Amino acid sequence: MAKQLKFSDDARQALLKGVDVVAKAVVTTLGPKGRNIALDKKWGAPNIVHDGVTVAKEIELKDPFENMGAQLVKEAASKTNDVAGDGTTTATLLAQAITSTGMKNVTAGANPMIIKKGIEKAVDAVVADLKKIAKPIKNKEEIEQVATISAGDEAIGKKIAEALDRVGRDGVVTVEEGKGMTIDIEYKEGMEFDRGYVSAYFVTNPERMEAEVENPYILLTDKKIASVQDLLPFLEKFVKVSKTLVIIADEIEGEALATLVVNKLKGTFNVLAIKAPGFGDRRKEMLDDIAVLTGGTVLSEDTGRTFENLEVTDLGRADKVWADKDNSRIIGGKGGTSQIKARISLIKRQISETDSDFDREKLEERLAKLAGGVAQINVGAATEIELNDKKERVKDAVGATKAAVEEGILPGGGIAFIKARKSLDGLKYDNNDEKVGIEIVRTALEMPLRMLAKNAGEDDGYVLRKIEDSTVMSSERSKIPKIRTMVTMPLPESLDQ
């Protein structure tokens, strides 16, 4: 099929149409008084959502050139969601404002590359100013305030604050569908992975079909253990030191498994055999994580370690290891603090460098298991429509709250962008086109506040003028009735400054 080509203003206008279509659909959801969007499905009831990135992802345009424009702004929303977890509607609105004004100036004869230089210079100045005025979150109450405002629901805010307070800064909070109609939190203590015991003969609690070993030594290997001859030399040394052993291996089968089971049943020593988590390279990384957590060494062909030269000092230690047929948990690993911190730093660096959503998710899970823990928020609702909407709001609120904990909080309601425009006042430029780029950003920074006002049914020009008035560029602005109507709850003092 022959390729279609467009140039100059025809190309720009087609791209801009796509940007405008996405933005028009997305920005109506902005703020606590934003509208809901109905998304049709091929089967079942439609989805009712209040989430910018979810709306954006559903949009595909028939015209290929317009669709390219739509995809560009969708990418901006998606990237914002990946990095911050929320703010996708604001990102879409800013992208549209910059694109629209920028293309008008290019059509009028301005140099696009010089305009781009001015835009980048202005963006750098605004970002630096926003970082300067950001306030660090100091306590659980402020976490709850951020979560409540993001979710638009006080009960959800309390649950998210509780979860984040429990797992810590580096912990992971996941959101899943619950079975009831309420929102519950499930905590997973220690390092948990989705592999269970190799044989039911290792069970110590027959009623619950669970195995539990207190204060064990932990042998870690990515090898298959099938021959008892591989294990015997080590076991003879081990039983002189302890009679409690956990083996985490790629596979344990044949006569090696039979020997372990027989000795377990005879009471010769207490043993628990578990299949190693993950696959391929990810398995090796997770075994290394467990080794760092427990203070052990992974027996691997990659490192040249064999059963013949394995010593008891190569084993890890923990307060407890628990397993059922599907999952295992290591509680109270005895690894060194400095080694664990170094491993955490390595994983954080890998998270910042990866472009894969899947890899990022798996790295974050590993980080949580090493550093903080995992809290799973189970969201329940009466209907599927309500469930989907509530789940998305909880996910957004978790992302926004984690970002706030990490980088601090800013005045809401678009106020931070209005304040940040002052950073552009003294910005130097080389020519008029560069100045145009700076002014494009200045104008774009008004748009979040204007759209919040429009969605609340207010005159955006009036609200903007009042905000710009120096006498109300403080918490006094919250006393202006028309500004107060833009929110659904009293602004917390920490955010209303």
Structural summary, described in words:
The protein is of the alpha/beta class and 497 residues long. It folds into 3 domains: 203 residues, GROEL, domain 1, CATH 1.10.560; 85 residues, GROEL, domain 2, CATH 3.30.260; 143 residues, GroEL (3-Layer(bba) Sandwich), CATH 3.50.7.10. The chain is 51% helix and 14% strand. Helix 1 packs across helix 3. It is elongated. 38% of the residues are buried.
Question: Brief description of this entry?
Answer:
The protein has helices at residues 8-27, 52-57, 64-84, 88-107, 112-133, 140-151, 154-167, 228-238, 254-266, 280-294, 337-353, 357-371, 384-407, 415-420, 432-444, 447-455, 460-468, 481-484; strands at residues 37-39, 47-49, 172-177, 183-188, 191-193, 211-214, 217-221, 224-225, 244-249, 251-252, 270-275, 298-299, 316-323, 328-333, 374-379. It is of the alpha/beta class and 497 residues long. Belongs to the chaperonin (HSP60) family.
Core attributes:
GroEL, 18 helices, alpha/beta, three-stranded mixed β-sheet, disordered C terminus, 497 residues, GROEL, domain 1, eight-stranded mixed β-sheet, GROEL, domain 2
CATH class of the largest domain: Mainly Alpha
What is the mean predicted local confidence, pLDDT? 86
Number of E strands: 15
Strand content: 5-15%
**Radius of gyration in whole Å, from Cα?**
28 Å
What is the fourth-level CATH superfamily of the largest domain? GroEL-like equatorial domain
Domain module tally: 3
The CATH architecture of the largest domain can be named as: Orthogonal Bundle
- By CATH, the topology of the largest domain is GROEL, domain 1
How far apart the termini lie comes to 58 Å
**Main beta sheet strand tally, sense and closure:** 8 strands, mixed
Low-confidence stretches: 475-497
Percent of residues in helices: 40-55%
Supply the helix-strand structural class.
alpha/beta
What shape does the CA trace take?
Answer: elongated
- What is the count of helical runs? 18
